[in-house]
Amino acid sequence: MSALVRYQAALLLRSQRWLAPFLLYAAFVGVGVQAGEPVLGALGYAVAGLVPVAAWAVRICLNQEPPAARAVVAAAAGRSRAHLAAVLAATGAVLLVGAVTVLVLTAVADPRGVRPVTAAASGLLAAGVCVLTGGAVGTLTTRPLVPARGWSLTALLLGSLLALVTPGSPAAGAVSALVTAARTTTAPFPWLAAATAPVLAAAAVALACRATARHG
Fold it and tell me: Which residues of 32-64 are buried (b: 16+ CB within 10 A; e: fewer)?
């Protein structure tokens, strides 16, 4: 599996398709986070943007191979494993970007009485929740479940929005906890969201891998 993940990551890096979502995310954070903003509020804003970025990255990785290359990889490793490797490569890349963003914001934002280590830990936990939720959205809104490109993009945008505003969504819970805590000196740790997000992501990937095994 590690070789498949490295293969998908190398394809993503060489294709330069990652530039659009990651540069837009950098602009989103750069414009939205103001100097002197409370660190927890800044982290809440930043991790919210990871949901659509993760969904977009997963969609890119699942569609970046030419059909012929995809068929060769599927024949060698199995369709389900190839599909899973693409999802893992995408979410891993976004997790890395999210972790760097959290650490940078923790270093430059106003702590407002919150210990930097605690703020960073809270932000990293929320970032993981948002990346997993976004990865689930991306997995459910592209091939083989939504093969049409137009409908896939529409579903991705709508799914990302719903993931951020729907009560009970892991991402919504994690972001809300950070934003609410910005007025206090206590960093939140949304353990329920952290427990729910991996389950949601695993269920989405399992459904997509099963569909891939059956229909390609």
Answer: ebeeebbbbbbbbbbbbbbbbbbbbbbbbbbeb
Q: Which one, of 123, 121, 119, 106, lies nearest residue 50 by Cα?
A: 123
> What pLDDT, on the 0 to 100 scale, is given for residue 166?
95
| pTM exceeds 0.85 | yes
Mean pLDDT (whole number) for 26-38: 90
| pLDDT tens sequence across 2-22 | 889 998 999 998 988 999 999
Q: Give dist(CA 71, CA 40) in Å, integer.
A: 46
The pLDDT, as a whole number, for residue 215 is 66
Q: Using an 8 Å Cβ cutoff, are 73 and 62 in contact? A: no
Rounded to 5, what percent of the chain is helix, strand, coil?
80, 0, 20
Which alpha helices (H) appear in 33-169, and where do they start and end? 39-48, 50-63, 67-77, 79-108, 116-140, 149-165
